[in-house]
Structures are given as C-alpha cells and as structure tokens.
Amino acid sequence: xxxxxxxxxxxxxxxxxxxxxxxxxxxxxxxxxxxxxxxxxxxxxxxxxxxxxxxxxxxxxxxxxxxxxxxxxxxxxxxxxxxxxxxxxxxxxxxxxxxxxxxxxxxxxxxxxxxxxxxxxxxxxxxxxxxxxxxxxxxxxxxxxxxxxxxxxxxxxxxxxxxxxxxxxxxxxxxxxxxxxxxxxxxxxxxxxxxxxxxxxxxxxxxxxxxxxxxxxxxxxxxxxxxxxxxxxxxxxxxxxxxxxxxxxxxxxxxxxxxxxxxxxxxxxxxxxxxxxxxxxxxxxxxxxxxxxx
Length: 294
Fold this sequence. Notes:
5-stranded antiparallel beta sheet; disordered N terminus; globular; Glutamine Phosphoribosylpyrophosphate, subunit 1, domain 1; 28% helix; 6 helices; alpha+beta
C-alpha cells in the first residue's frame, strides 16, 4: 500500500494518470473489502440496529518512518462517519494535493444542500456522498500525483478507498468507494451492489486496509493461533456491556491485527466509534489529538 506522506521533498509533477472508482454497498464478510500491499486495518461491523468501526493509528511517511497519531476515523457530523486507507493524503512543499477526509466533508456538504434535510428520507445517502467524493478525489489525484509514484502502480491496483457510514432513524447505511489505476487506459469499475432491505440482528464484520488477511484469519478462526485467541476473546467478552459488545469486538479484531501484523505497518492506539439507529455518534475510545467531531 502506498503510504501517507505528510512532507515529501521531491517536486510534484502532474501525471495524467486516469483513476477510476467503484462504489460497493456492503453485503458479505466472506472476504475483505479491499486488499493493499501493506498497512492499515479498519474494521467495520453492521447490523439492523447499528454500525461500529475501529482502526489502528499508524501512519507511514515517505522516508519509511511512522507515527501513531493518524486519525483514520473522522466524524463529518454527528451522524456521519468516514474512514479511509491507502494513500488518503498528499502534501508536497506545503501544498495539499488531496485529502480524503477534507474531500469527504465537501462531498457531504454538497449532498446535504441537494437533499435539504439529510439522511432521514434517503436510504442511499451514504452512496451519494461516496459518488461525489470519488469525483473530487480523482480530479485532485490526477492534478497532483507525482510521476514517480505513478510508475510504482500496477494496473487495477487500489490506490485509496473510502468508507462512508450514514446514520438514520430507521437504518444506518454503509457505502464503500475504491479508487484504482486504470488498466491500459480502459475504464475499470467495481460492481455496484445494494444492501438488502432486511439486515440481520447479528453484526457482520468486515475490514479494509493492507492487513485484511490477518483480520480474516482471526475473524474466521482459520489457524491455531486464531483459535487460541478466540478463547481469550470469549473470556474478555464476558466483561463487555451489551451496548458496546460489537464495538469491543471490532477493537479486539484490530488489536489482534496489530499484535500479529507487521510492526512497521499497523500500530496502537485503537480508535472506535458506534452509530446506532436513531442516535448520534458515540465514541468508544479516541486519541486526544483527534477531534471528536471534525
């Protein structure tokens, strides 16, 4: 996965890299949402009643160093969460080329103005925000991406993604958008799917980021170490309150990825939030440097 670069010394030159996007509404946890080469884990769980999300905090710089203060989960307002992995931000010479969170804020503002009221009457609100975000990101990336970075990308390689969670009075909605490199200048779109009208009472977990394979290992207990950790998880879960049990499970899954994943790519602390039907965002845990409502 190409990393967050807060300050890069090389001069950015415009490269006419055509990037395309697909928007997926979540359906299944059979496999992880997106695969990157390395780094980042964002776990999301959804049910008929709520959506929970948790992430690690490690951000890697262009020079190979890393820091553990990345705010990967952003509250765009009190009922809309956004998270991104891959290459969500670029700053060169003090100039911001693109910023996934800022573009998400702009996209939400745009759709709110069009909707004149928000998420309550539109079950596909999250998807509409994701569509606007896609267009903003593609333009900024194409305008500012450095040629040497383009040279490292393979056709159809995922470059950056966005997870959009909109709370409503009846049901929350989750949309997932991916931006990837074109394949020999031919349009490349991921299939668009819809969330079933009836969601299960049981929470379904999925993940995005470069360490999603480790997440699946521990979600599905497919190894000896995963089975041992499951016994520990079962013991820990006895102390979880029913109201926060799903969020605690998401945190636990992120913790396991941090424990067994590459130390240079994922790291603590873990941020986590919950958005229940009819309620505003509830932060389960959050770093002090990250605003509770961006």
